[in-house]
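Feature request, filed as a ticket because there's no other form

It would be nice if the structure record came with a short human-readable summary line next to the tokens. Right now we just get the raw output. Example of a typical job, pasted below so the devs can see what we mean:
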Amino acid sequence: MVINYIHEVKKKKIYNRIKANLALHQVKNKKLAEQLQISPQTVSKWCTNYSQPSIPELYAIAIFLNVPVTDLLELPRINE
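Raw output as currently delivered:
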């Protein structure tokens, strides 16, 4: 069951919910970039799902926004 889910997830694109969480917490991209010491362009790419943050970066974002890491991810639903 879990193995099947993993194989199905690999076939689908995984999106993040960073943009939605920043808006919810009224945090600008620039503020997150400053906090993580990265460029605002990198945050912009994450917010548009052009690229994805690493797992340590996801945890840093979650800590900064005081949300669970799972709130930052939109996992694909697999039809059984």
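Something like this underneath would help us a lot:
DSSP finds five helices and two strands in the chain.
The chain has one domain: 2-74.
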